[in-house]
Write a structure and sequence with these properties.
Helix content is 55%, strand content 14%. It is an alpha+beta fold and 88 residues long. The chain has one domain. It has a two-stranded parallel ribbon with strand order 1-2. Helix 2 packs across helix 3. The chain is globular, with a radius of gyration of 14 Å.
Length: 88
């Protein structure tokens, strides 16, 4: 499997935004992909207890989207938000 670095992915993200793709769409796609991959690795999400730890910024947003998708698949999802009070 070919992979790219986090720096390279940041460049891809910025190019997508420059070309007019909204960050919210990038976040939705990333979070959905994470949820689908986790469900695949677990043999399904229904009935699973899953904890998502999310911080501030786009990666935290990806985590929240993943949590939403996992919950819609039937998982019991708990989200822990990390960051300064009032900044979340």
């Amino acid at each position: 499997m070919e992979t790219i670095s986090s720096r390279e992915m940041g460049i891809v993200d910025e190019n997508c935004v420059f070309l007019g793709l909204p960050r919210s769409l990038l976040m939705e796609n990333a979070g959905r992909a994470v949820a689908e991959e986790l469900a695949r690795r677990l043999g399904g999400a229904r009935g699973r207890k899953i904890v998502v730890v999310a911080g501030l910024g786009d990666n935290g947003g990806d985590g929240l989207v993943a949590a939403r998708h996992l919950a819609s698949m039937g998982a019991e999802v708990h989200v822990i938000l990390l960051g300064r009070e009032g900044a979340i």
